[in-house]
Amino acid sequence: MGAKFKNPYPKKFLSLLCLSTLALLIFYHSFVPNKATLQNKPLFYVPSSRPTNAAAATDGILVCNRTGYRSDICHMRGVVRARPPNSVTVHSTERRHETVRPYTRKWETSIMSKITQLNLASGPDVDPRPCDVHHHVPALFFSAGGYTGNTFHEFNDGIVPLYISARAFNRRVVLVVLNYSAWWESKYRDVLARLTDHRIVDFERDARAHCFPEAFVGLHIHGDLTIDPSKARETNASIADFRALLDEAYKPTIHSAPPRAPRPKLVIFSREGSRAITNEEALVRLSESIGFDVERLAPKPTTTLKSIYKVLSACDAAVGVHGAAMTHFFFMRPGAVFVQIVPVGILGPARACFAGATEAAGLKYVEYVVEVEESSLYAEYGRDAEVVREPGKVNARGWEETKRVYLDGQNVTLDLARFRGTLEAAFENSERRRREESIAS
Q1: Rounded to 5 degrees, what angle do the CA atoms 417, 418, 423 make?
Q2: How many CB atoms neighbour CB 55 within 10 A?
Q3: Closest Cα partner for 324 from 152, 132, 189?
Q4: What is the dihedral of CA 398, 404, 408, 414, to 10 degrees?
Q5: Contacts (Cβ under 8 Å, ≥6 apart) of 290
Q6: Domain named Glycosyltransferase 61 catalytic: which ranges (predicted)?
Q7: pLDDT in tens, 159-177
Q8: Which is nearest to 368 in space by CA: 252, 268, 227?
């Protein structure tokens, strides 16, 4: 028999070595996912729970998910260098290159061409230059361009998706904005302050190179003015949560809330130009005769969100012709009545924009579809004209024709005898709700 091997290491030492090796393997597989797995799974914004300094010790990751109809999402982890105006790199043994325009309307090639394209790259020798600014929290890249300037699109394409995407970080994220404008940040400052504790980076104008342990590029979007909790499973976000954030942002700005009025308050969204209510004065008088206190709201580009919030958060009902300004329904209290007047030819878009979203926000949605005689198209073209009789054929020619004829080309003269029933129902609902609130308080 050969000589028996004598282990030079104590058994206790070997046990500790095995446990240490096992712990290292668990750590690696817990925090460094397989790249193929990441590539095939939907990316959601859940920041890594690894210590920040661990990023340099592991191979970098660059993966993208392009399966979404509305937006592309990319994720980078490791030593991420963001160098203006459009370069973001991560050190990795794998060479990879991706281009992304981080805006939530990727199917619209015309508007996407105006969004800054980011060049994402990974490799062993990408951009070895030092960073000017070192961040210890992840970055979230997105564009504030596109249709920004239109309230519906500002919320639908930007603010709501930003809320969905940033919520998981609990403010520990740097918002890196492309197509930045100072008025946009000023307008939404109170909301942005609830999404990040860090200074916003105007990426294309900031000449400094920024380093991050992790970066997410693009925003998640669930639909028009929609938050689907089943899709936001990591954060369990909902429209009610978004509405609560708006309260948190704007309630403190109302220094003296007016006392509760003895009569229900109706807000009329007043428009000039297209889709105006031509007999608005008569509508005000009718509403007051039914029992409402009436306030007209006509937001301008310079109107602050806090002033709009002050009006709508105190109302019991709101009425308006379909338009972007009605996106401010987010400021109304749950249980209030939201009456959308739908002109000829745009029933589909009107419902898509506001029907489901207002109900999800806890409002009572009411739809008043105008008769052709209530539209200015009737007087301009006549009852038998195609634009009046068969709007489906006109809409089939494309969005530009829909916009020209039905959005930009008509006003509404309400049949007040017909509309009276809608107002009376809104008043009764408001009175009942006020009684219930009084009992509850």
Answers
A1: 90
A2: 22
A3: 152
A4: -80
A5: 420, 423, 424, 427
A6: 242-339
A7: 999 999 999 999 999 999 9
A8: 268
